[in-house]
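Our platform keeps sequence and structure together, in a single record for each protein. Because each token names a local backbone shape, the row as a whole describes the fold. One such record is reproduced below, unchanged from the form in which we store it:
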Amino acid sequence: MRKYILIGLLALLSATKLSAQKPNEITHFNLIFAPDLSNRLNPKLYPKAVNDADIVQGAMGKIWPDILRIGRDEGQLDRYSVDFINKGLIGLYKINTDILVIDFQLFKRQSDRINYILARNSVPRTLKQDVSVFMAEYQKFNNKAAISNNGADIWTYFQSGIDDRIVLPALSTGGRLKHKFRNVMVLMTDGYIEAGIYGKGYDLSAAKVKDFRNAFLKSNIDDMNVFLSRNPKFKIKPAKNPFLKDLEVIVLEMYDRSLSRAGAATRHPTDMEIMKLIWTDWMRSSGVKRFELKSTASNKSEAVKYIIDFLKKP
């Protein structure tokens, strides 16, 4: 029976589904986790139901069988990694970035990939082991960030920090098949962009959200979209980065500070409504290929489902 199960798994991983894609084209996932590592990780300041590390662990645990079965084709070249919005934290926290990458391009043969995934034939390393090492390092710097007070310049990251390290181009293998990547970023932030440069169009601070609300309520305009279009000073300047046109972004754990600890709105429109409006305008004007904005999840399973559902959408 074990023999037939392994044969079935081999067939599943090797099955070619070109009918679901363009002829002679295979698409792979390039999944990047980009945590802002700001003081929002401090549970005493901003208590929330699920920790960033739990979200990443849950998603990494879905590589097999879930993610590797989303429109899979023969010769998976998926890549899973962490990138840092504030690169200075790498040295500050002594982060080993080499083990924060799982790259299926390292395998030249499909049989080697299968052995790695299923821990067969006494392979020197396995997917399960690499995920465990990956998460141990992630948890280590996540814990350090939770007791620190470092900011995250998200605007500058989108302007110049996202490059060909993050957005992978199509691969030329010399054969008849073209290998393309879906570059998907899981951006973990609370939605407030406080970069240290205020009032110049690079931030979305709590003060700016408050100013928007007060001005909107005084305007007697019913539609916030109309109000924003007439008051561009509240917008975030578009990032001018050609790589964004090939990047899909799901923003997780946007935290509404206008809610009470019990979850009731203390002001209208809420911070979340305002942030989503301004973030949507910013993502569109910056030319991001596709994006979704998600509030804090109620639990780990919900947060991971956001990611998996995002990957399942074309």
In short: The radius of gyration is 21 Å. The chain has one domain: 28-107+125-312. Residues 14-20 have pLDDT under 50 and may be disordered. The longest helix spans residues 127-146.
